[in-house]
Design goal:
Elements lengths: L8 H15 L49 H5 L7 E6 H13 L5 H12 L1 H6 L4 E4 L4 H7 L3 H13 L8 E3 L11 H8 L3 E3 L8 E9 L3 H12 L4 E9 L4
Parallel strand pairs: 1-6, 2-5, 5-6
Antiparallel strand pairs: 3-4
Helix pairs in contact: 4-7
One zinc ion binds next to loops.
């Protein structure tokens, strides 16, 4: 009788990952060419082109500040619904890779984005004792067209990396809103009102880390945080891959 050789699941996954990597080498989010050296998530020489947001940052929304004034101009003017937000990269250094991540099918970037987020913002992620990660949803129509929700891909990879559970369907997008970049701040807020509703997953009493790809005015983050708080969440913190500079 031959003995069955049982490999641990992690081992099988590593072997499968290596096979996929050799057959279809991962693309680097910065240069979009196969990563060098192979097997990494980002080229060694491309890392320097990404600018991580370092201090000083706005204590509320996490935007980069030129001078440490505590809050940015926007956050002095208005109250956000989320407790705090942090972003990983300056938008100017990340916009092309985020564009490809979102619109050019580069779903594979999510894993290295999560890894870099974990490296850069470990303290923020672990010091706040989150019960779950939730991603900002896109509408069903957009999901069908794009094939995936980039914020969800990012959130799921962050969950796999940190061990914080990912809660899907906690909040839904019901209206297909116009692209936000075309609107001014007050139009955005109006547009986003009623764009979200509660999902099926229970978030009562949970401390939530809400993730998205870009932070602009915080209107999307606020709209989603509002729904989650209405659903009984105890607090909602934000985390985005990039944000522009604050003033
Ligand atoms: Zn590269
Ligand atoms: Zn701010």
């Amino acid at each position: 009788m031959t003995e069955k050789v049982l490999l641990p699941l992690g081992c099988l996954k590593q072997t499968a990952d290596r096979f996929v990597n050799l057959t279809y080498p991962l693309r680097c989010p910065v240069c979009d060419r196969p990563v060098w050296p192979r097997g990494q998530g980002i080229c060694l020489f491309c890392l320097k082109d990404l600018k991580a947001i370092g201090d000083p940052v706005c204590e509320k929304c996490g935007k980069k500040l030129m001078v440490d004034t505590g809050l940015c101009h926007d956050c002095k003017e208005k109250n956000h619904i989320f407790t705090r937000c942090r972003s990983v990269f300056e938008y100017s250094s990340a916009k092309e890779m985020i564009y490809r991540f979102k619109y050019a099918g580069r779903r594979e970037y999510a894993r290295v984005f999560a890894f870099l987020t974990g490296k850069i913002l470990a303290e923020y992620i672990f010091a706040n004792d989150f019960d779950c990660i939730v991603s900002v949803p896109i509408s069903r129509k957009r999901l069908l067209k794009r094939g995936y929700n980039q914020a969800e891909e990012y959130g799921r990879e962050l969950s796999a990396l940190t061990g914080i559970p990912f809660f899907d369907d906690s909040v839904r997008r019901v209206k297909n809103t116009a692209p936000l970049k075309c609107l001014n701040p007050s139009q955005r807020q109006k547009n986003l009102k009623n764009a979200f509703k509660k999902g099926k997953n229970v978030v009562k009493s949970k401390r939530i880390l809400l993730v998205d790809d870009i932070y602009t005015t915080g209107a999307t983050m606020d709209a989603c945080a509002g729904i989650l708080l209405e659903s009984g969440a105890s607090c909602v913190y934000g985390l985005t891959l990039s944000s522009g500079a604050g003033v």
